[in-house]
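Researcher: Go.
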Amino acid sequence: MSHGDIALVHGLVGIPSLSRQEGDAVEWLVQRMADRGFVASVDDAGNAVGEIGSGRRHLVLLGHIDTVSGDIPVRIEDGVLVGRGAVDAKGPLAAFICAATEPPPGLRVTVVGAVEEESPTSAGARYRATLPAPDWCVIGEPSGWDGVTIGYKGRLVLRVVLTRAARHGAAPGPTASEAALALWGRFRDAAAARGGVGPERLDCRLEGMTGGPGDGLQERAELLVGYRLPPAIATADLEAEVREIARGLGGEAAVSVTRVAAEEPVRTARTTPVAQAFARAIARAGGQVAFKVKSGTSDMNVLAPAWRCPMIAYGPGDSSYDHTPMERLPLDEYRRSIALLKDVLGALAAIP
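Model: Structure:
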């Protein structure tokens, strides 16, 4: 791994790029890709895009350039890069660029630094999904150098608002906030009743709650309920179930349910050419591939149903550090991932 490869990931992590505030990082990355020989530009969604190589086969390497909030001083300590976005997902994105800088003959590569992945909009991936599908796609997310992610749970976020006529604080019965908490309990219990474990379990969380006396005429309480859906459950079916539970609340309260965000669950095959190229490259590097299904979501949830091409997610780092105050990326793993990605690009270019 060259000094320039370290400088790329260190410099990218050092530029703040909160979701929907990625402009400075995008412009910087476009220039760095141009310096490496890419035809680089900013597309209509604000993504950083670099194109390199030529040939009839097309590979898209797409990682997101935005991060969640939280200022973590950027530094290298004992061979580990520390900083917001080091793992999720600037490390994987930088590894893509380094690996594709000298592509093998016969392969055209497009690297995308996508915006707004950490926002419900996923605007960067949704824009790319409107373009023609490539032959293969790799999503940049931490999987470990010897891991390949072939699936993600879906996501459904609902805003549930409970309103009723105001009453005196000394009146008997639950407050609007207490009634909302009881309703939340019904959502949680209904999810648990579905059973399942790990990737097959429906996860339900209370992501936020507000409540109070309102305007003096109405009491109001609001729940933000987040679900992680296994492949067997569609977002529309789950939303219908939640609405049915809300309708059964009864009493004098009115309940409204609004969809905030949704992505369907996605699962890809481990037998596709791109998945097998990674498995063989990991074996050649002395590892044993671990195929993974993640409980979160990624831009794969957007692109897989739109492009329907062989697709996996890959990148250096431990995803347990995502969104934490301890976000870090071992540079040795970053190096191994770059070498492995170069091997994969060569293998894909050699496919007849």
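Model: The chain has a mean pLDDT of 94.
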